[in-house]
């Protein structure tokens, strides 16, 4: 099967490319690094020639509602239009568990808009909602830094390894189909702040992790489990401690 991976160089996208390639599929990685702009559509039609399934793992580096919504909805429209024109049969998209339960958070509102835009297009769509990644704590440590201080939100989560998410996306893309929306999560509930501190100790970094109490209804939902999976979620991948001992952490920590 010929599979196109939008965002194929990202945190999850690279694992999708690897998993699909190892399974013997013909994989096309789509990103600006490969000369394709999925937001404007430049180069998209050409790269989708002969593709049967698109897996969308694209992301944007802002939590601003308007900017993120523009990005996600424009990408959704481009993938739908170009995919339909090239005879693609299925579009699988990565989303996030608990979007409706964290009110007022701009990025989550943008992801909801993305889901709606994808489902409104001509191609059949499967949306896979995942919990936060084990890698999420690494991203926070890298982005929310002021010198040696890193502000990490107080959040109750059930994290999952990005590699396991990538493998699950490939299974959905190549499987017989099913419900238009599915949930996946890691095996254990955790608090984000201790996870960040465990990563700092593991990598022997001089970083002070400062718990951040996010204000408002969104912060309350984050602290009280609004992002935890439903009982119907599929539990996949290693425990956080197992992931911490593996190679994925070492390869991404900045």
Outline the structure in words.
The strands form three sheets. A seven-stranded parallel sheet has the order 2-1-3-4-5-9-12, with helices on both faces. Strands 6-7-11 form a three-stranded mixed sheet. A two-stranded antiparallel sheet has the order 8-10. It contains ten helices and twelve strands. With 254 residues, the protein is of the alpha/beta class. The mean pLDDT is 93. The protein has a single domain, classed as Rossmann fold (3-Layer(aba) Sandwich), CATH 3.40.50.720.
Order of helices and strands: EHEHEHEHEHEEEHEEHEHEHH
Low-confidence stretches: none
Radius of gyration: 18 Å
> How do the strands of the widest beta sheet line up side by side?
2-1-3-4-5-9-12
Biggest sheet: strands, sense, closure? 7 strands, parallel
CATH structural architecture? 3-Layer(aba) Sandwich
**What number of structural domains do the residues give?**
1
Give the terminus-to-terminus CA distance: 35 Å
Q: Determine the CATH superfamily.
A: NAD(P)-binding Rossmann-like Domain
Give the strand content.
15-25%
CATH class bucket: Alpha Beta
Residue share in helices?
25-40%
Structural class designation? alpha/beta
Output the CATH topology. Answer: Rossmann fold
Helix count?
Answer: 10
Morphology = globular
How many beta-strand segments?
Answer: 12
The overall pLDDT average reads: 93
């Amino acid at each position: 099967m010929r599979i196109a991976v939008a965002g194929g160089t990202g945190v999850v996208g690279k694992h999708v490319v690897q998993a699909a390639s190892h399974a013997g599929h013909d994989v096309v990685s789509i990103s600006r690094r490969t000369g394709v702009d999925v937001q404007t559509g430049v180069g998209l039609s050409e790269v989708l020639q002969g593709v049967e399934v698109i897996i969308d793992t694209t992301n944007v580096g802002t939590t601003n509602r308007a900017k993120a919504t523009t990005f996600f909805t424009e990408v959704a429209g481009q993938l739908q239009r170009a995919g339909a024109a090239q005879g693609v049969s299925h579009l699988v998209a990565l989303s996030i568990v608990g979007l409706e339960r964290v009110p007022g958070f701009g990025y989550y509102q943008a992801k909801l808009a993305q889901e709606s835009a994808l489902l409104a297009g001509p191609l059949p769509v499967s949306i896979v909602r995942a919990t936060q990644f084990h890698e999420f704590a690494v991203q926070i440590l890298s982005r929310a830094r002021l010198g040696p201080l890193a502000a990490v939100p107080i959040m109750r989560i059930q994290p999952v390894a990005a590699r396991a998410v990538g493998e699950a996306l490939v299974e959905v893309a190549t499987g017989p189909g099913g419900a238009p929306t599915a949930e996946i999560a890691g095996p254990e509930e955790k608090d984000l702040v201790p996870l960040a501190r465990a990563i700092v100790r593991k990598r022997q970094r001089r970083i002070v992790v400062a718990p951040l109490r996010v204000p408002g209804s969104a912060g309350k939902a984050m602290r009280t489990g609004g992002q935890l999976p439903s009982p119907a979620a599929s539990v996949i991948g290693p425990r956080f401690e197992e992931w911490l001992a593996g190679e994925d952490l070492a390869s991404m920590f900045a």
